[in-house]
Amino acid sequence: MEFGIYELLRLIGALGFFIYGMKVMSDGIQKAGGNKMRQILGGMTSNRYFGVMTGFLITAIVQSSSATTVMTVSFVNAGLLTLVQSAGVMMGANIGTTITAWVISILGFKVKMSAIALPIIAFGMPMMFARKTKTKNWGEFLVGFALLFIGLSELKSAVPDVKNNPEVLNFLAGFADISFLSRLMFVGVGTLLTIVVQSSSAAMALTLVLCNTGVIPFEVAAAMVLGENIGTTITAELASMVGNVHAKRSARIHSMFNIIGVTWMLILMPYALDIVEYVSMNYFGSISPYTAVDGWGDSMSPVPIALSIFHTGFNFLNVLILIWFVPAIVRFAERTVKSQGDMDEEFHLEHIGTGLMQTAELSVLEANKEVAKFGKITSRLFDMIPELMKETDSKKFGKQMTRIKKYEDITDRMEVEIADYLAKAAQGEMSDSASMKVRSMISMINDMERIGDICYQLSITVERKNEQKAYFTPELRTSLEEMIVEVQKAMSMMNSNLNSDYKQVSMVGANEAETIINNMRNKLRKEYLTKIEKGEFKIQTGMIYNNMIHSLEKVGDHIHNITEAIVGN
Questions:
Q1: Cβ–Cβ contacts within 10 Å for residue 392, how many?
Q2: pTM assigned to the model
Q3: What is the mean pLDDT of residues 72-91?
């Protein structure tokens, strides 16, 4: 049997063809159903059983457990899902990914899908050039579906022919009764294969082909399938690396779930494979998957069916067992993935750090949550100003100044990164409402960054006041505090609006707050000019006081602008 560089490259190329088809198909269905997936995940409840159903449904639709797990990690990162909810979705994704194996086993081995792949492309390709976005997306799905089975056909023909090479069959016969350590080794092979190709579906397809053509025995293939369940967790782990502590914990839960499942299945594997053989022969009408060359190439394709039964049975049982232990797994993840402090919990760009989502619509949703978080940070920065004004200890005053500068830097960074993210998201196809939302959010983050700048300037003004020993009378201090309280009320209303359904937000409250702040500014400025004329305090003190009034009123203007942008959306 000759198998040189050319044959190896042909095998890798066929696998690449399959992966590309899977990606095109998955991207197409995700674009077509982006809004629906957002509604499904966005409407999650704390019921982890419903989470399993959600994870299964989305993975079965998009034909990619990696897409579901990365999406779930991002939603945990965005604060849309709790760790308990994400655990349910991850479990459901594991069952959902077994649908791919069934599709490949039934259509790829029993039906000659490659024969009708070109007619499917002939039907799907014109759809990709349609004006209607949804038609384009469905066309992409059909073309990807066809490419997937062309790739599978090429994969089957690229695998070495071992039927006429008995020496290879004699070598493989040595694995007929593999030990626990051998099973463990092939679990590692399956894990490595999935990490390399970055797709458990592609790794599963390759395993099905290799086993069906006799390159590897059924027992070895089953062990590799278990390894592929571990390998698929790497995608979520990689996605969480740039996320916050909650995202890392969510990925850890996914890894723990699969590792625990593979561990107990490795111990019970001989008995599990006997059950699979029985079910395959008695309920699917096929011959034993252990049968040697006689079974390979048979129209019943016993090996792919048996591996699909094993894959589905294992994942279903694993969910059935471990769903009762979700709280314990979550606690373990929380203990093993420690928080790095405030920056990890509060100030890291939680939602957009994991990269663009599969669809522009979902990317906008993540950015929306980031903007709401930006509002909270801006509010916290503003709250530091009255604290700074009251601080009399010079050491504590210096620390507070440093803290304010740190927060101001954060607001600068957040504006740039959110704007960049929105610009990238806008390059994808999105609805008119999503496009309007992008423009509104760009306007909002600009106003929030300006509030951060004004807060920093206010802190500099307070520092200059202390250095110049400019004394504010109790009346002036009370007036400033009253104006600050009104601005804080407006800020609180702004944050409430940012976390609400934009369509339900009204300008009534924002207009009232703006009027109160403006009237207070006019009143205090008039009183200030009167006191200056009467010589009740120094001109220098009056200028500092006037600057602070003006700055507070400008903060109120930007808060009002943010609500206008929300309503304008």
A1: 7
A2: 0.58
A3: 73
